[in-house]
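Exercise: predict the fold of this chain.
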Amino acid sequence: MDRKHVLVVDDDPHILALIRTILMQGNYRVTTASDGQQALDSLRRSHFDAIITDALMPGLDGPTLTGKIKADPDLKDLPVIMITASSRPDMVQKSFSSGCILFLPKPFTAASLISILQLALR
């Protein structure tokens, strides 16, 4: 079975490293991006099975990135998981309105991250 390829987007290098480690231990292929524009560039170069993105990033934030993904006919079916330390109801609503399918609040456990990803990949 091919390993699933996941794009992880977060402006915090520590969070990127943590998620990368968790996913690699779960036998996923992982590519990282430190902002939304870098993520879009990666999406144009490679095939991914899912995206995990931070909601709050400078420049192209998670909901805006998700909206651009969902507006692209070649990417629109890609599952997007939004992660954030913000539990504000408007951020949750904005994330789902943009097209993300699952929302994972920070802090999260390795088990919850893997479970959410497995759910998104079904």
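Check your answer against the key: The chain has a mean pLDDT of 93.
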